[in-house]
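FIELD: query
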Amino acid sequence: MLEVSGLTKTYPTGDRALRGVTFTVDRPEAVFVIGPSGAGKSTLLRCINRLVEPDAGVVRLAGVEVTRLAGRALREARRAMGMIFQEFNLVERLTVMENVLSGRLGYVTTWQAWRRRFPPEDVEAAFRTLARVGLEGFEHKRADELSGGQRQRVGIARALVQRPKILLVDEPTSSLDPRTAEAVMRLIVELAAEDGIPALVNMHDVPLARAFARRILGLNAGRIVYDGPVEGLTEDVLERIYGDAGRPVEAPA
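FIELD: result
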């Protein structure tokens, strides 16, 4: 499904965010990316969907080499990647329904998008998805009237109506209280499983990752230093991931 090979990114400041990251997600599973601040977690997601341009490496999704695409072909590839953001990324003055339907913008004409005219099947899908995320009856509320947990559910619904081939989830619970964070994380994992799509989730909260992950990628200074089942996340492994965040740590042979 998703193949990442040799992904490298250095910012103009000289910060080396990614150093040859390689991994594959070949089945519908929840893969959590953990690591200290500055390890490259957010850059990884943004290089996968080309919101940030990698310096080198290859990203393939469902056999399509995303890193070689441009223009319309790149826009079409991005439609297959449902992004859930840390800060929700909603248009505050728009309604819940309008924010959810923005996930279908890549499928309609410019005129339809400007007029906010979506096919009936898209509107029906948006209603169904809002019910799935627990927001039935919220369609006409403005986004700025919602709680943090409700806003994140709108973001989840928006990603799902894209009918993506993968969910890219960037710190979805960092601004939520613990109980809401657990509910939101459970929702993301369960809905991804129901739809049979993988989810690649950046996460600072190690206990939450332990609770919901099947597989863990540990990043330190732009390198993967652990790739394995959540059961293998021992104290030694955590020390490898977090113990010396100030310099690169080599993965074991």
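FIELD: remark
The chain has a mean pLDDT of 89.
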